[in-house]
Amino acid sequence: MPDQKLKGKVVLMGGGAKNLGGLTSRQFAELGANVAVHYNSAGTKQAADETVAAIKQIGTDAFAIQADLTKVSEVTRTFDETIKRFGGIDIAVNTTGMVIKKPIINCTEDDYDKIFAVNSKAAFFFVQEAGKKLNDRGKIISLVSSLLAAYTDSYAIYPGSKAPIEHFTRAASKEFGARGISVNALGPGPMETPFFYGQESAASADYNQNAAALSKFTRTGLTDIADIAPVITFLATDGWWITGQTIFANGGYTTR
Ligand SMILES: NC(=O)c1ccc[n+]([C@@H]2O[C@H](COP(=O)([O-])OP(=O)(O)OC[C@H]3O[C@@H](n4cnc5c(N)ncnc54)[C@H](OP(=O)(O)O)[C@@H]3O)[C@@H](O)[C@H]2O)c1
Q: Whose CA is nearest to atom 12 of ligand 1?
């Protein structure tokens, strides 16, 4: 197996400041990588700065970069600034996402445009830019959702807008494979972050806390970000032979 060690490698973490992205940024640093910590909202700047400080404390280099990735020029700038700072990029992870839980008949044009901009458009151009700019033998990982395999009400527009990533991933893995680049999508189950709780009632949260085959063996019954970050670092290292796939890591929440 070719050497897949992370020491001295460069990771661009889209949405790398907090929650799943924040933990994954730190785990990449613990494995020896330098990390560009992307964030979007002004309210996330502090988390981004804290993540950068934590990475420097671990002993690798990091910097924070703000960008609205629904604008293609901002995707380009994020990659270019990372290359300028670190000399290249080996791994690009896109954790950006937006969730709306509503019955189809209540979804507005504005809901549709906003969620498809974050979940589909930003994801597509992130993959495209990575395909143009990653070093040979690079890795691209995009976050989707285990709801891609759910049979449930009110989750049409969220997994619907994540679904295109599955095919972007398949096509990109074929196109970029000639340069040794692995491309995958990863779909966690409902994770214990504000992203999840913001959409759920007490009753639906309770349902989800008991819905996975392995729910009883986690702290909250939901997917723990601590069980997802290592899957991302694995796909970026010894899991390099996995490419073109959408992988669910969800304790047995949905399957197909
Ligand atoms: N939590 C769950 O239940 C769950 C389950 C399965 C999959 N996922 C997926 O896992 C990923 C991480 O979710 P999380 O729970 O860790 O929540 P999160 O921290 O809120 O992640 C969402 C990220 O998307 C970024 N973002 C939103 N709009 C953006 C834009 N226009 N440009 C650039 N970035 C933008 C946010 O940045 P700012 O906050 O700075 O705007 C944030 O970093 C998401 O893709 C989500 O769809 C979540």
A: 95
The answer to the question of residue 107 being in a domain is yes
Count of structural domains within the chain: 1
H helices present in the chain, as ranges: 19-30, 45-58, 72-86, 109-116, 122-133, 157-176, 194-197, 202-209, 225-235
189 within a domain of the structure (yes/no): yes
Three-state SS at 65: strand
Indicate which CATH number applies to the domain containing 164.
3.40.50.720
Nearest atom of ligand 1 to the alpha carbon of 19: 16
Q: What is the pLDDT of residues 1-46, one digit of tens each?
A: 777 799 999 999 999 999 999 999 999 999 999 999 999 999 999 9
CA-proximal residue: ligand 1, atom 11 (nearest): 95
159-212 confidence digits (pLDDT tens): 999 999 999 999 999 999 999 999 999 999 999 999 999 999 999 999 999 999
Phi and psi at residue 79, to the nearest 5° = -65, -45
Q: Which domain holds residue 72?
A: 10-195+224-248
- Residue 112 designated active-site: no
Does residue 254 form part of some domain?
no
Residue of the nearest CA to atom 31 in ligand 1?
68
In a domain, 3, yes or no: no
> Rounded to two decimals, what is the model's pTM?
0.98
- Choose the residue to mutate in 23, 74, 96 for probing ligand 1, maximizing ligand atoms within 8 Å of C-beta: 96
